## 1
Amino acid sequence: MVSAEPTTKEAIVKRFFVAILLLVSTSMLGFAQQVPEIPFDSAPNFFKFPADLHLGEPSGVAVNSKGHIFIFNRGNTTGPAYGATASQLLEFMPDGKFLREIGHNLYAWSYAHTVRVDRDDNIWAVDKGSDMIVKFNPEGRVQMVFGRKKEASDEAGPWTRVTPPRPAVDGQFRQPTDVTWDTQGNIFISDGYINSRVAKFDKNGDWVKSWGEPGRGQSQFNTPHSIAADAKGNIYVADRGNRRIQVFDPNGGFLNEIKIDVPIPPDAHPWMGNQPTAEAAAAQSGAPWSICITPGPTQYLYSSDAFPGRIYKLTLDGKVLGVLGKTGRQPRQFGWIHEMACPSENELYVAEILNWRVQKLILKPAAKSSNNE
């Protein structure tokens, strides 16, 4: 009579492979669910506007050392420049009360992109439409100008993408996107939609160098859309079109590449348009539209995407610590976060160009694990 039971050796081998399979499955499941969801609140009606002032598309937000909030807004439309001029720099008190408009009727205003505040509370506005970056002192007066607007007398029009790309020109910008500084005060400008490079100036505004070109390789860019620096002076570039954050030393030496891979929720949907294919969704998820780095002895990197419309909290070496939010029109939902300010680990300001608003977010210190969802 032949036994139906496997031999002792066969049983051991079978149990071994079953155990390995269970271990791998459990590990994969744990990986997919291990990123916690961070609970947070949105301060309702935080900003107080005068009766005749409205936000259009707020493309930028920044906070200075006194807690004043600056919003760079695609509003106050006049023109034409190439179309309607849409740039307006607004300042609010820490409690959200409107204080003033900075640079009213400024020649550089064309199409707002981002605003940043340096360690001396100078305000820097990056205008994509005029190809200019303007530094204001805390009183709101122009201190430095970078780039040059096309002259209306030359029948000016916006820069266009051509193949092969036009060579970059030192000191000239083509749709710049953002600005940051290292510990020495050197200035780094992400430039941008056309040139796809980073330009470096010294603290006096003198040209130093640039690095990068259009492409998908190391130190190449496809729309460097946001830029930030850590306490060591390392430069983080949101390489949006390549779905990654590239990290460089202050001289442009490549240090690291950060990719955000967090499973997309099954109920995720875009703010507008059809539901993306799985391939298109994967290409958009984690693609960094905006980044900011918190102050303090322990710094954190925040990054936002357009779909599924989340904010990601990371360590500076790229480990995802948590996620929050989703696409939508309600409070605590987002419509294309174009810039973020993170004055502390648990306080964020997010400028949404589709929802025409800036939300103040308060993150809760105790994270809620998505395992319980």
## 2
Amino acid sequence: MTVEYINEQAHLIDFCQRIAHSSWLAVDTEFLREKTYYPQLCLIQVANDDYIACIDPLVLDDLNPILDIFYDPNVTVVFHAARQDLELFYLLRNSLPAPIFDTQLAATVLGYGEQIGYGNLVKMCLDVDLDKAHSRTDWTKRPLDPAQIDYAADDVRYLRDVYKLLSQELDQKNRRHWLDDDFAALTNNDSFKPEPETIWRKIKGAGRLKGVQLAVLQRLAAWREQRALQSNRPRRWIVKDDILIDLAKLAPDSLEKFTMVRGLENSVIERHGKRLLDEIKQAKTLPKEQWPILKKPQPLTHQQDAVVDALLALLRKLCDEQSIAPSAVATRKDIERLVSGEHDLPITQGWRNEIVGHHLQQFLNGKLSVTADTSQLYTHQQ
């Protein structure tokens, strides 16, 4: 099938007219974000049963003809590992297309493995080895040569058949509804909105801070996030994470004391030093009741650790019966949180709860018992 490279508006409109009545479309994107806060959209690949196209957003004036189709509620947009692609569409329209289908999530509930890559899934489903020659391509460079375009087209060329195979298997195993919550979560607009006031929670090392140090980190991280958004520059280009942690620990109150912070470059002090001092000062004036709190789980007792081990054994048994990797359902940390009394967990929701979670809770509530012989575990309702 010939791949259409679309870099003229008339060609895009013609292509959109030809695919307008599709019930589904396989979609992928190429982007670059090494030097920016926001990803830069460089290419959109689209395919249905009849056409494959690579649409060039760097030279086209108006992407609305194809976006209108993606956002048509009668069209299922098929992705593999959809989140980064969806972020690009959110930035274009401040909303997300729906319905969607994510082949990576579908593969998880069908036993192909957790977070399986596109190439491996194509190999498993279609016995096709994908070319990796252009995996490091700079997609901002023009012109694109035919080999690059064909390489990009492979991301939707085989996605079509993978989608059909996985859809059929989901229906055969009656698991399509398992994905409803996961797909709904992916298309939740709120998950793509910047949250400067809470971004500090994602900074590695925040767990080592306490009290007013967390208040300082929150202010500094929020300022950096807003600065990154406004300038469209990566966070690390403004101030690195480890520097923010040290600033929160030491809370310098003068430019001279910035020398205590290892690795803080003079250029950063010259450019942002006064603002950093102001943010630190503002954080230190906050009343104690307004300091952020980072909840740390209480360590489990030895007996609770034994319960976790029992639940993990039950998890493995139940997942084996469904041919699903246990790690796709829950981690040890998830089980520890369950034993600690938490209930708002992935394992207590959706398909994970259906096949495993409610059984684990029955076990904890004394309504399910487990016995074993040398060959396997057995469960018994009480």
